[in-house]
Design goal:
mainly beta, eleven-stranded parallel β-sheet, 0% helix
Length: 259
């Protein structure tokens, strides 16, 4: 266990082309749990980052962070109850989130990408983003989600993309988020192979399952958009959508609204 006193200090700092493996650790109560920068590679297994003042983990400047393992672990890696983002990825860094990794109860997004990249992968285990301010936030970044995964119960939306790119292949469930399941502003999303976007929105006109606005491009195939409290799919402000083979039903407003 590495424990701080709640002051503004990084409990773990990894810089300058370092190669590090962290396993079976608890990192808690620091200013920031871990900061990785400047072309490092860090692999985290069966560890918990919790109760830090700002981010649980920040990875930056062309570094690579891996949480969990693609072959599956009996014990999940957990990033929880941090005051900022669970994981922040910026400056062309990349995060690979594998296995049973859980990002939950963070004051910011579970996963925040600011000019960074992330992949949530693959068949082994289920990636979980639960009850953060937002599930995944992207500003100028890219995320590729390979199911199984669940993005659930966020106040600020499941996936919020601003000038970014999103790709989702199933099975992924996006549900119970209070604004949108997926919000695209000046962004693109390719979503298919058995996704479920359900029970999102608070009933306001601007809430619901999926919204594509401000010259966004949405491609949605073979998915379900059901029982959202608001519109199932909204397309507006010079955006485009291609919809094929989907089930869109039980939404409290229009199934599809083009505005």
């Amino acid at each position: 266990t590495i424990r701080g006193s709640g002051q503004g200090v990084d409990l773990v700092r990894i810089f300058n082309n370092s190669l590090v493996r962290i396993a079976d650790c608890i990192i808690e109560r620091g200013g920031q749990g871990m900061f990785v920068s400047n072309m490092c590679q860090v692999n985290v297994l069966r560890s918990t980052f919790q109760d830090n003042v700002s981010n649980g983990i920040r990875v930056s400047a062309n570094s690579l962070l891996s949480l969990g393992t693609v072959s599956g672990d009996t014990v999940a890696t957990v990033v929880q109850r941090n005051g900022g983002h669970g994981v922040q990825v910026d400056e062309n860094a990349m995060a690979q989130i594998y296995g049973k990794t859980v990002l939950k109860d963070n004051g910011g997004a579970g996963l925040n990408l600011t000019g960074g990249r992330a992949r949530l992968c693959c068949n082994e285990g289920q990636r979980q983003l639960l009850n953060n301010r937002a599930g995944i936030e992207l500003t100028g970044g890219t995320v590729h989600i390979d199911g199984p995964a669940i993005i659930k119960d966020h106040v600020g939306g499941g996936i919020n993309a601003f000038g970014a790119a999103v790709a989702i292949s199933g099975p992924v469930v996006i549900e119970g988020n209070k604004t949108f399941g997926i919000l695209l502003l000046g962004s693109s999303a390719t979503i298919g192979q058995g996704q479920t976007i359900r029970s999102n929105g608070s009933g306001a006109m601007s809430h619901g399952g999926i919204a594509a606005a401000r010259t966004s491009n949405l491609r949605l195939t073979s998915s379900q958009v059901v029982n959202n409290n608001g519109q199932g799919i909204y397309v507006g402000e010079n955006s485009m959508a291609f919809l094929s083979g989907n089930t869109i039903t039980g939404n409290s407003a229009e199934g599809v609204r083009v505005w």
